[in-house]
Amino acid sequence: MSLSTAERPDDAGEVLAEIWSELLGIPAHTITPDASFLRLGGDSVLAVRMAALIRKRLGVVLALADVGAESTVAELTELIRRRSAGGPAPRALPVELRRRLDKTAPFPLLPLQQGYFVGQQGGWELSYESAHFYSDVALLDMDSEEAPEALADALRRLAEHQPMLRARVTSDGMQHILPLDAPAAVPEPQVYDLRTASAEEAAESLARLRAEMIANGPDPARGPGLDIRLTLLPDGRGRLHTNMSLLLFDGWSATLLNRELLELSADWNAMPAPLDMGFDDYVSSVHALPQTDAWTSDRDWWWSRLDDMPLPPALPLTTDPREVRATTMVNREQYLSPGRWVALRDRCAAHDVTPSTAMFTVFAITIARWAGHHRLLLNSLQLNRLPLHPDVHRVFGAFASTMLLPTELTPGSTFAQLVTQAQRRFTEHAGHALVTGVEVSRELGRRRGTHRPVAPVVFQSTLGMDAAMGAQQPDFAGPLGQLDMDDFFHQLRTPQVALEARFYELRGSLAIVFSLVEELFEIEQVDAAYADLVALVGSLADGDGWDRPVDLPGEPNEARTGLRLGRYDDDRADADGGPPATELELTIAAVWEEVLEAPVLDRGASFFDLGGDSLLAVRALARLAKEAGITVPVREFLADPTVAGVASASRTDVAR
């Protein structure tokens, strides 16, 4: 009987070198045992794929903490040998992929999906009717007669291949996938023919269309989570408009969707290789995590640190966020040229840090200077695809999660020192990522007695995504013509976020983006902070910003005046305690008990202190409206989330 690869530990180093060669695009024979994944061009995104390939080819399950970007071939080879020889089992990935038998049955939302769903209910701070990412791009040399049908046909084939294009979200916060032949299951592209319009008429029509799609994103509670539109312009020109619901698609999925849609549009007969798993299988599998010792260990790790968590950056505000009714977030955007971006990546590798960590450190420094203090809580959006299966990176879905990053920037340090500390801190926190930032934020808010966002300043990096996917997005899409990425526009709308920095690659350049709720800030301060951010990135690319001390604020000035982010009072009413006192309160308490699966004996106890969260609150309010005719606006519920408060708000609402 021949031995499997996993039973031949002496081959582990060779197989690992082949995996690195495949992921990094370098010859396997040039990869030495002391070479680190990071120095050869790897990062945390590629490390997830590496873990999946190790599992597939060597039969060894590694924790995400085991395959950090800093790992060397020798270190991983030794770890694989120990695991193959029956060494201690990995702490992470305590669940296996379980395929669902009924593919049309509802399945839960992941924590960040829950956050987006709750944010669409209209009552939470900085919330919108839809959370979505909009983009449009110019098309050249298009076959205007063939393009509409080519796009529609590509969408139909893609919806067959990727079931999440047919997903819907229910009113109580579950998701399900429609059969391919169900009415309106497949997104249908809308086409606008402006080929005979004047230049002025076409510009006005495009501006109206863009404004409409930015303000009204797709809502999978009412229809497809993807809205695709095609504008036909004179002389074979056009524009492709894409609107994706963040409830169903993360950043990785958005990039994958664009690639696959363009590839299918270019070839009427193409069909991607079949998928051996679905997003629903993944969600159902990780839904069991809270019942595992590994998840409990991660929870205890986070919970033990919550009381010492810093506050979010105290950015000066022009108005209280709960008074803002923004329709979108606005962008500040610049690009680092391909040559300088290559130089920056090389300098990061020389300092043994990932480009994403360098950009996070740049952002933290910028925000600290703006806020006036060096200890602050930031939020990070993570491409969180646990390597349960080798196909996990090929599947559409909202896999992403957040991770809270308490950050302390030591005054007098050089950038090289700060980024090295950030790399260690990030690696440590990522090693406990089975508990997501949404779950940690809920507990932090409960301890602080607030229902307002505890970490509304966000960092997002998708650097390395193109390399992880193996190729760049195609430039040519058959009848749709040539994509002109020099004429590309995008807009983000994310609930409960005041400011988000985004870093990504576009045609060999580094994009540096601020997305923010502009109504909250003094524009001059935003522009100054963004200029500071761009200048610091440039100094790192040029090399002179690594070794000089970074200018940082000292201790926060307690005499600072004016409204600042995270420094406002929760003027929540305190209801009298005691058992529910009226028939209305008894009805409310009964619904709460069913939703919370716990007794509700005190009319003055907070819904959240009783074990509720924002998703359960939405379900409770929906059931009260449906079963008892009790309608309470979300904002009034949050002002006093008690049985007595809901009863009072209900009477007030009825009185109107």
From TrEMBL:
Please name the SUPFAM superfamilies in this protein's record.
ACP-like, CoA-dependent acyltransferases
InterPro entries noted in UniProt = ACP-like_sf, CAT-like_dom_sf, Condensation_dom, Condensation_MtbB-like, PKS_PP-bd, PP-bd_ACP, Ppantetheine_attach_site
The segment(s) forming the Carrier domain are 7-84, 579-654
User: Which metal ions or organic cofactors does this protein require, according to UniProt?
Assistant: pantetheine 4'-phosphate
Q: Which UniProt keywords apply?
A: Ligase, Phosphopantetheine, Phosphoprotein
Classify the source by domain of life.
Bacteria
Any idea what this protein is called? Phosphopantetheine-binding protein
Q: Which organism is it from?
A: Micromonospora fulviviridis
